[in-house]
Amino acid sequence: EAQVTQNPRYLITVTGKKLTVTCSQNMNHEYMSWYRQDPGLGLRQIYYSMNVEVTDKGDVPEGYKVSRKEKRNFPLILESPSPNQTSLYFCASSLGMNLPRQTQYFGPGTRLLVL
Amino acid sequence: SQKIEQNSEALNIQEGKTATLTCNYTNYSPAYLQWYRQDPGRGPVFLLLIRENEKEKRKERLKVTFDTTLKQSLFHITASQPADSATYLCALPYTGTASKLTFGTGTRLQVTL
Question: Which among B41, B99, B101 has CB closest to A104?
Fold first, then answer.
């Protein structure tokens, strides 16, 4: 089954404790992206990757890191989480971003609480 | 700056009626516009895409229009059903760099019996 998976689905942590949220897709997609979703603010892009070893900042990259060493995986790293990073996180992938490859497939989400 | 606006107030309609949701944007010249459906606590699911040179697109009970002069897209669900209750998001690629996609905040639709 074609899908985007994220782990963990739920995470409670404390300020300053490094964490990684994994994202994997099995559709051989080139483009992958991370979003956070907050009430009233909608989905905001954190980082994206056009292909292996190619990453770039989205709209809200501060406090986050990513890497793309393999095509299928795109982990999101919070080196020193803070309470303002409490949010619902989504990973997404697509064949590309130009027509007709641009349909985004989203993972199930990771709900993060930073105390 | 580039901005997308969707009605933040929930839209409540009766089963069988047509729901119409609006997406307005400024400072974009998008090659396309997408609509997604999101259920609570779940990831958005792609519904429809309309290109800048298309006026209208249909898929089953869904219809999308795209007016690049008004900078507006309308999303219609005909013969609405309670199962259509969800939040609907529009999304556009950034002008000048198609690598980034921006989403509106979404409009919640509630269809009642």
Answer: B101
